[in-house]
Amino acid sequence: MRLFVAVVPPLEVVEDLSEFVEPRREHPDDVIRWARDEHWHITLAFLGDVPDWKTEELEERLERAAKRQKPFELQLDGAGAFPGVPDARVLYVGVRDETESLRHLSMTTRAAANRAGVTVEGRKFTPHVTVARLRRPVDVTRWVRIFDGYRSPTWRAGSVQLIESRLGAGPGNSSAYITVGEWDFLG
Length: 187
Hints:
- By secondary structure, the chain is of the alpha+beta class.
- The chain has helices spanning 11-25, 52-68, 101-115, 141-148, and strands at 2-7, 32-34, 42-49, 72-82, 88-96, 128-138, 155-157, 159-166, 176-184.
- It has a five-stranded antiparallel β-sheet with strand order 2-6-5-4-7, sandwiched between helices. A four-stranded antiparallel β-sheet has the order 3-1-8-9.
- The longest helix is centred in the first third of the chain and has 17 residues, at 52-68.
- The two termini are 29 Å apart.
């Protein structure tokens, strides 16, 4: 299974961001592939392909990590691009987390995965929600300026999810995301 650990914004935040993104989706640009609303999440740890036999221990360790975490406030705020604005492959909305709880949660979920024998892939943690992917490297300065003005309602993050990504199994040959497990913050 191809897995990642994430915090998923609540429906009201997804709907608010969707209202902001929708007019931009109508912009004719064959380089931009807009992310589907139901795919919006904040990745804490990308695990890649995980053998089925490792998932039970992984789930147990993620549950323990979640139980130690207190709920915390988040807001989508600002924008950016990976690997950078002049040569972007990903356009994203940033995340305001004044308590640094996401960073801590990312470390604890990555540690939980490692203890379960699962290697965490990816780079340094940058809290974000991917709104678009680009078919080739492009300067997205104007898009970052547009999205930099967006602010979502504030919400209280209260759980972490383990999500399976099935490449090409969604509408239009997109990925299908299936929640494998969800654990509430009880700290």
